[in-house]
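hiii, so i know i said id send this last week but things got crazy w the move. better late than never?? heres the sequnce for the chain we talked about at the cafe, plus the structure i predicted for it. fair warning i was half asleep when i ran it
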Amino acid sequence: MKKVFLLLSALFIVVSGFSQTVDPVIFKVGNIPVHQSEFLYIYQKNNGKKADFSKQSLEEYLDLYIRFKLKVAKAKEMRLDTIPELITELEGYRKQLSKSYLVDKEVNDRLVVEVFERMQKDINVSHILITLNETNDPSLETTAEAKINHVYKRLQEGVPFEQLAVEHSEDPSSRNNGGSLGYVTSMLPDGFYEFENIAYSLKPEEYSKPFKTHVGYHIVKLNAERPARGEIEAAHIMILKKNDDLAYAKNKIDSIYQLLLKGEEFDKLAKIHSTDRKTALQGGYLGFFGINKYEMPFEEAAFALTKDGEFSKPFSTTAGWHIIKRISKVARNDFDKVKRGITAQVLNDGRYNIAKEKVIQNIQKENNFKENKEAFNEFIHQLDQEFFTADWVNPVKEPLTLFSLEKNSFTTDDFAVFCKTNQRDRIRYGGNTPIPMVAQQLYNQFVNETCLGWEEDKLESKYPDFKALMREYAEGILLFEATKREVWDKASQDVEGLTAFFEKNSKKYTWKQRADLYTYTIQLNDEAKANEIYAFAFNNNHEKLIEKFNKDNQLVIFTRSKVESGSNDLVYMKMEKGDISALNYDSSRGIYKFRKIEDILAKSPKSLDEAKGYVIADYQEFLEKAWVEKLRKEFKVEIEKTPFEKLIKK
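okay and structure toks below
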């Protein structure tokens, strides 16, 4: 089950492993080396699944990356990396990236993979629940814990799980079924991550020790497991049962089934006969659904269908009789296809906060986190109601160490600054919450943010992939600024150079055959008059049309354009002089429209103004090529053939 995690880890190993062993140079631009780790990272990232390590693919990307590095080298020579605005932009990007990097890494490297692996099977579980009262009364919680421990003891004595569920479980939806919840799959609803963890850790017929969720204390049993059913896209025809005529629905659905066997369309029959009015008008369409969405007979019939387009025999549920048609089946065994959806679910689930807590715990463990609770208690002891005001000042005169990371201490002075900065959080409690509780919440937040900030300062040294992202962005900023100055600005501002380039390449910029097209709008909601104007247009030119019908008022308005062959404006028209489109009526505006080709214009050269957009783009490409050739002469490029050729796999 760990295959996907190993696959995700592979890229990191490829990229970072060289720093621990050997990381040969692939090429140099001037005195700046590009190591294999850097080249592989960017090659695989930008090519994705097309990164096949073929000779052609690698050589093409090598040339592309050399050109990129030449421009970056020039940008540094131009000291663009010292421009304050660019430095600020890079700092802003790092702050934004580092803020979520550690938690996102935990989510992507562990939680998303965990959900994906669990999604590959459905598990059949039962549970015994002793609920907790929402009042958070400690005595009631103690009673609930004692109850679940008593049930667990009886389980260990050999009393059947199902019997104990009936006798003790406080889940009304499953108690009478021996605690059975049926088949479920990851992700379970928000708040049940611990339930999911334990359920997926069990072996068939094994039960857990008691554990707690937000609803109470549980013991869960794994009854069975099967390959995941995934999701199906389906439609159905339903005939409701009638209490006064039990045979009606069965007879009706059987007659529909015979029509289907004879080749009648499912959608058509659903629209005519289905009594599920929510879906009937859409041909019975139900959309996508997975397990536990519908009654078990419905689910079993749906997932028994093995081919798209296949329909079931009639079957019964408590609501009525059905025939179900499979439209498509969604397999969830391709990680790349489902990763984005899983990630979105994880980010909106409570397990995301658990991941954040784990990251912080790991930081504390790795950096010898030590806490001085006596100092915090002393700080709290000196607080009063002024703590909830904007005028509050730190009451502790001599700073006390609250906690430390490695050899760095964080004091009551640091915490006081944090409390002042987070004035809104402090003030909004306004005396409704006890001072110690508010201070504890702020302190926990202060510790968490300090730990994350501590680790964020070391991201480049600890995480090669973060270092690569920062290098990529920094060089991207330099590339943009250098290209803007050397290519884009010149192409748009160098009028003399642009004109010379156009004159040298003018044959490239020509009009294809064009239609002199008139689009007419008849501003009259009168079909007879519209047909009269339309008929006149067939045999008369534009001037005569306007002269005849616009004498007294502006009855016909028009636009004129020169349109190249293949344009959408000429859809359903022939590229011929005099060709005319159909007369179309716009009921929302009460007007009529048609188009007519007044003349056909032969191929002709474009002026600079007419071709300016294309000319500028081509001129930019010309300037960039010339710039790169100039850079190749300025900066020596050395390719290390042996390590490069070792990358070639085919």
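btw Residues 121-227 form a domain with the Chitinase A; domain 3 fold (CATH 3.10.50.40). thought thatd interest u
miss u guys!!
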